[in-house]
Amino acid sequence: MVQPLDSRQRNRYSRQLMIDSIADSDQRSLLSSRVLVAGAGGLGSSVIQYLAAAGVGTVGIVDDGRVKRSNLQRQVVHTVDDIGEPKVESAARFIDALNPDVTVETHATRITPDTVASLLRRYDVVVDGLDNFATRFLVNDAARLAAVPFVHGAVYELEGQLTVFRPGGPCYRCLLPAAPDEETVPSDEPMGIFPSVPGTIGTLQATEVLKCLLDLGEPLDDELLRYDAADATVVRTPLEPNPDCPLCGSDEIDDMDDIDYDDRYRIED
């Protein structure tokens, strides 16, 4: 039996319950929803904040990193006191302090071809808070095969982008067929990021997650939204499934074991 909202919850979520299109049943649905945030960095921080604040009942966080001083410029769920601590533990403490309605599931592990499918299991939506192409491909592949919506986001310097990949539409490999070569985009070198841009994109990602969970409005399917903070411009570009996509343009791949990856997690021919 679904439990009604108690008086404390009605008060806590009162502002969203005042929206005509959100009823008590929708809030109860959020409280029973499960979202996995892949990455507890700049993007993940904003996603985590707003999903927890909105009352998403279970938030999973996967990240094998530890908090560094250089993270604090943009990764706002972590503090000076958290330096050296696992990011998943720091983020979990933030959620616990913000909303006791939320159960946090921490996964202090690296996402690999061997772990990604089990990490996504039992979640309704997975969110891209990643900082490298290779792992993003892995999460995209596992999400598509599990028919789980994948809310993509990425940032670089003063720019960011996001979209929602859902079953039946294009996937991340339709947008970017393969990871750039190491010579083009070194994966082990830090890149410049304007401090508030991950917050802008991450907040939009959280909004898209909530829309997916509530079946509210029109999720950002089949379009890529690009944001340039330098001149505050937003551009939306249509996306279409790629008939030659090795993942969603073919019936040859049924599970992760059918995919042969090279050392940068690109699908090998």
TrEMBL record:
> Could you tell me the superkingdom of the organism this chain comes from?
Archaea
One GO molecular-function annotation for this sequence? Answer: ubiquitin-like modifier activating enzyme activity
One Pfam match: ThiF
SUPFAM superfamilies tied to this protein: Activating enzymes of the ubiquitin-like proteins
| Gene Ontology, cellular component aspect | cytosol
Q: What is this protein called?
A: UBA/THIF-type NAD/FAD binding protein
User: Locate the THIF-type NAD/FAD binding fold domain: which residues?
Assistant: 13-246
Keywords per UniProt = ATP-binding, Nucleotide-binding, Transferase
Q: Which InterPro entries match?
A: ThiF/MoeB/HesA, ThiF_NAD_FAD-bd, Ubiquitin-activating_enz
Native organism taxonomy: Archaea, Methanobacteriati, Methanobacteriota, Stenosarchaea group, Halobacteria
